[in-house]
């Protein structure tokens, strides 16, 4: 075995041992029964403890999708904000159209 792999092996062994210690400590020291806050109704109205065959509201998924769309919007705006002084007028117009479409989607939602 090459000398370069010994450091990687030591790091892997250390991380496995540490994660095992943390997992065992969490299992033995943690509470086994959930508290009142944990079993309460979620913000979207979704009851966390229900029968598996019972239908639930689709609003939870709509809120999650809406969050993902606007989170993705932020990741598209970061590169523009860093180099906005180097973008041409056409690029600025495209960003403006992008923001108008996202704002329209938020108002529609």
Task: Explain what you see.
The longest helix is centred in the first third of the chain and has 26 residues, at 4-29. 64% of the residues lie in helices and 0% in strands. The radius of gyration is 24 Å and the shape is flat. It has 3 helices and no strands. The chain is mainly α and 109 residues long. It starts with a helix and ends with a helix. It has one domain.
Helices, strands, pairings?
Blueprint: H1 4-29, H2 59-82, H3 89-108
Oligomer: single chain
N to C succession of SSEs: HHH
Radius of gyration: 24 Å
- Strand-residue proportion: under 5%
Low-confidence stretches: none
The outline comes out as flat
Q: How much helix is in the residues?
A: 55-70%
Structural class: mainly alpha
Task: Give the number of helices.
Answer: 3
Output mean pLDDT: 80
Distance between the termini: 59 Å
> How many domain regions?
1
Number of strands: 0
Q: What can be said about the biggest beta sheet?
A: none
Which properties best describe this structure?
109 residues, 3 helices, mainly alpha
Summarize the structure.
64% of the residues lie in helices and 0% in strands. It is mostly helical and 109 residues long.
């Amino acid at each position: 075995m090459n000398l370069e792999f010994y450091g990687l092996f030591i790091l892997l062994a250390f991380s496995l041992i540490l994660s095992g210690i943390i997992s065992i400590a969490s299992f033995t020291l943690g509470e086994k029964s959930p508290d009142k806050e944990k079993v309460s109704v979620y913000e979207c109205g979704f009851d966390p403890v229900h029968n598996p065959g019972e239908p639930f509201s689709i609003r939870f998924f709509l809120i999650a999708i809406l969050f993902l769309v606007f989170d993705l919007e932020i990741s598209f705006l970061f590169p523009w904000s860093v180099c906005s002084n180097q973008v041409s007028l056409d690029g600025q117009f495209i960003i403006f159209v992008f923001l108008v479409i996202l704002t329209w989607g938020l108002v529609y939602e």
